[in-house]
């Protein structure tokens, strides 16, 4: 393995000079810096992991995490992915400050962001698509904080990258799947999370785009549940009672269990085709009871893990993301392939 000493000897400089070039510290003449960098590239030098860990620990990198996980079981696997990766990177001194909120309150997100200001080197956030949140993200970026949007994007912000699914494609996939399953006329009731969330709106747009191609498919009503099961129960029950013609229920985000419990309370399970997202335990339970026909899976564990990996590569290795969007595949799941 190539060492710093060997690079220094070949370049005719001190080890300290090579170290300053590698870690971008102190003043090094441009000519000398280019000489060292070219030698590093030529010899394919890789820093010693123990040395990197020691260097990173001196800087005590801290990652702030803000996600709407309270009451939303989808984020259980996202958090598991984040924590698994964070545990792996502990040797490098990487620490996390995890903040979880319920639902999509702009004020709640702003309060957490205010607490994190000046305390973190990176931010992983599932942002509300609100100008106030976008401005805060930009403030963090301008102050040198590395920002990753997770599971939901704020593409008008200057965040460094996004990790999640293609929401428009998720909606289009759901629309195509529904047309494969339902050959008769479809009167569709939609339960979505929140119009404050860019991804939820995009998923709905993709769904509408696909079903609008079919003259026998019609959206009867759309209700928001703020990704909350209790609210989802009430909104679904009310919607079905007011629109007995509904024979398809499309659940755009979370609140799946609450919606299904409303269907069962009305004894409508044999009269409705239900499509949803993700494979949280309560959703799997409803699939096993044949209440839900199919779901679209968006790899929550991998999303959390990938977000932390990008943060680690940037903070410890100095590697910027090679693309602005890291997309997980939308995958159709039925009972037989869960």
Description:
The protein has 338 residues and is an alpha/beta fold. The protein has three domains: 4-43; 60-164 and 300-327, Response regulator (Rossmann fold, 3-Layer(aba) Sandwich), CATH 3.40.50; 167-297, Response regulator (Rossmann fold), CATH 3.40.50. It has helices spanning 4-11, 15-23, 30-43, 49-59, 74-88, 106-116, 131-142, 167-181, 198-211, 229-242, 256-265, 281-288, 300-315, and strands at 62-70, 95-102, 122-125, 146-150, 161-165, 186-192, 217-224, 248-251, 273-277, 294-297, 325-328, 331-333. A six-stranded parallel sheet has the order 2-1-3-4-5-11, sandwiched between helices. The longest helix is centred in the last third of the chain and has 16 residues, at 300-315. The chain is elongated. The mean pLDDT is 91.
Identify the CATH class of the largest domain: Alpha Beta
Give the proportion of residues in helices: 40-55%
Computed over alpha carbons, the radius of gyration is 24 Å
The CATH superfamily of the largest domain is Response regulator
Proportion of β residues?
15-25%
By CATH, the architecture of the largest domain is named 3-Layer(aba) Sandwich
> What is the element string, with H for helices and E for strands?
HHHHEHEHEHEEHEHEHEHEHEHEE
- Summed up, the domain count is 3
Pfam families: LacI, Peripla_BP_4
Organism: Pectinatus cerevisiiphilus
InterPro entries: HTH_LacI, Lambda_DNA-bd_dom_sf, Peripla_BP_I, SBP_2_dom
Protein name: LacI family transcriptional regulator
């Amino acid at each position: 393995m190539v060492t710093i000493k060997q690079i220094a000897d070949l370049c005719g400089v001190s080890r300290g000079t090579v170290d300053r070039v590698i870690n971008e510290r102190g003043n090094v003449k441009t000519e000398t810096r280019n000489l060292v960098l070219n030698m590093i590239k030529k010899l394919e030098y890789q820093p010693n992991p123990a040395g990197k860990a020691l260097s990173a620990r001196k800087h005590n990198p801290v990652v702030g995490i803000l996600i709407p996980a309270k009451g939303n079981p989808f984020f259980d696997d996202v958090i598991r992915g984040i924590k698994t990766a964070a545990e792996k990177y502990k040797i490098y001194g990487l620490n996390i400050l995890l903040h979880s909120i319920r639902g999509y309150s702009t004020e709640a997100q702003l309060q957490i962001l205010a607490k994190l200001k000046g305390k973190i080197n990176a931010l992983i956030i599932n942002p509300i698509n609100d100008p106030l949140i976008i401005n805060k993200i930009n403030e963090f970026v301008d102050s040198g904080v590395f920002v990753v949007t997770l599971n939901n994007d704020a593409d008008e912000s200057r965040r460094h990258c996004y990790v999640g699914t293609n929401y428009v494609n998720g909606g289009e996939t759901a629309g195509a799947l529904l047309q494969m399953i339902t050959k008769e006329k479809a009167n569709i009731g939609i339960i979505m999370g929140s119009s404050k969330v860019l991804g939820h709106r995009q998923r709905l747009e993709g769904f509408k785009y696909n079903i609008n191609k079919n003259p026998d498919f019609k959206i009867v009503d759309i209700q928001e549940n703020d990704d909350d099961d209790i609210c989802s129960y009430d909104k679904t029950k009310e919607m079905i009672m007011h629109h007995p013609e509904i024979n398809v229920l499309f659940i755009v985000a979370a609140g799946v269990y609450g919606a299904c419990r409303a269907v069962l309370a009305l004894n409508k399970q044999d009269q409705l085709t239900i499509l949803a997202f993700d494979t949280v335990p309560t959703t799997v339970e409803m699939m096993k009871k044949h209440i839900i026909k199919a779901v679209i899976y968006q790899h929550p564990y991998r999303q959390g893990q990938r977000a932390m990996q990008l943060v680690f590569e940037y903070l410890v290795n100095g590697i910027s993301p090679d693309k602005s969007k890291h997309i997980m595949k939308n995958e159709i799941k039925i009972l037989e392939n869960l």
